[in-house]
Amino acid sequence: MQEMVNSVQHNGVLTPIIVRPGTEDGQFEIISGHNRVEAARLAGLTEIPAIIREMDNETAIVAMVDSNLRQRDKLLPSEKAFAYKMKLEAIKRSAGRPATNNSSQLGTNYRSDELIAEQAGESRNQIHRFIRLTELIPPLLE
Q1: What are the DSSP calls for the chain, one per residue?
Q2: pLDDT tens, 76-89?
Q3: Residues 20 and 62: beta-carbon distance below 8 Å
Q4: Contact assessment for residue 43 and residue 5, using Cβ atoms and an 8 Å cutoff
Q5: pTM of the entire structure?
Q6: In degrees rounded to 5, what are phi and psi of residue 137?
Q7: What is the rounded distance in angstroms from the CA atom of residue 142 to the CA atom of residue 71?
Q8: CA 73 to CA 137: how far, in whole Å?
């Protein structure tokens, strides 16, 4: 975090955070960029660049998980496990018609776990192995 604070002090926040409108009083919910916000706060900044996106809850969860998986180099297996589980549950809750590339007339439907596996560069079975870690008792999870 201190390296990020130093960078923000010298260069400012180079990559905008992603937010979505939160409440009626003009507040926003941070989707991606929590560490950048904290570094900017510690560096004494009161404003940083942001991109505002309208997102439903499931889309926001998927975006947050994807951002964390992409930007953090060293994730613990337990952190990946909870991220994959959160993403899988959000995708399954998503409502609406399947995308045009997910039509049975064009071939086999993508399964949510296969989609996550493809995006993560893992196998579907490996995604499930990670997710099973979330069922460990806390002392083992530590």
Answers
A1: -HHHHHHHHHH---S-EEEEE-STTS-EEEEE-HHHHHHHHHTT-S---EEE----HHHHHHHHHHHHHHH-S---HHHHHHHHHHHHHHHHH--SPPPGGG-GGGSSPPPHHHHHHHHHTS-HHHHHHHHHGGGS-HHHH-
A2: 888 899 999 999 99
A3: no
A4: yes
A5: 0.69
A6: -70, 150
A7: 23
A8: 26
Q: Answer for the pair 82, 54: CB distance below 8 angstroms, yes or no.
A: no
pLDDT of residue 48: 95
Closest CA to 112 of 70, 65, 79, 67: 65
Would you say 40 and 48 are in contact if contact means Cβ atoms under 8 Å apart?
A: yes
